[in-house]
Amino acid sequence: MSKEVVATTGAVYSILAQGTRIIGDVYSEEDIRIEGGLEGNLTSKGKAILGPFSVLKGDLKCVNAEISGSVEGDIEANEQLSLRGNSCVRGTVRTSTLIIEPGSIFNGTCEMNVENL
Fold first, then answer.
1. Is residue 109 part of a domain?
2. Which residues make beta-bridge pairs with 109?
3. Which residues have a Cβ under 8 Å from the Cβ of 77 and sit 6 or more positions away?
4. Is 45 a domain residue?
C-alpha cells in the first residue's frame, strides 16, 4: 500500500498513487487522494479526490468529493460532489450539491438536499 503525506497549503492528504491497487476497505480521518485502483469501500471524514486514472469499485462516503476517474458504486457526499470532465459514475448518488461538468458520464440515480446524510 502506498501512503504518502503531502503538505500543500497546510492540508494533509493520504495518497494512493497511480499504478497502485488496493483490495479492501479504506478509512481516512483526513482528506484523501486516489490516483490508483481501489476494490472496496472508501470512507473519509474530509474530502475525497479521485484523479483521472483512478478506479473505485465500491461505495464512497465523505464530506466533499471531486471525481475525475471512474466509480462503480454508491456515493454519499454530505456537502458537495463534483464530477469533472471525463469522469464516469455508475450508482446511486446522495449529496446536497451536485456539479456535473461537460464530458462526464453519470448513470444512476441522485437524491439531493438529503437531510442527515
1. no
2. 92
3. 48, 60, 62, 63, 64, 65, 93, 94, 95, 96, 117
4. yes
pLDDT of the chain along its 117 residues, tens only? 444 433 344 465 678 888 889 999 999 999 999 999 999 999 999 999 999 999 999 999 999 999 999 999 999 999 999 999 999 999 999 999 999 999 999 999 999 976 655
pTM (two decimals): 0.85
Question: How far from chain centre, in Å, is Cα 63?
Answer: 10
**Is residue 110 in some structural domain?**
no
> Is residue 116 one of the residues assigned to a domain?
no
Q: Nearest to residue 10, comparing CAs of 62, 59, 64, 46? A: 46
Residue 12 has a pLDDT of: 58
Q: How many CB atoms lie within 10 A of CB 24?
A: 10
CB count in 10 Å sphere of residue 41: 17
Residue range of the domain that includes 18? 5-101
Domain count for the chain, please give it: 1
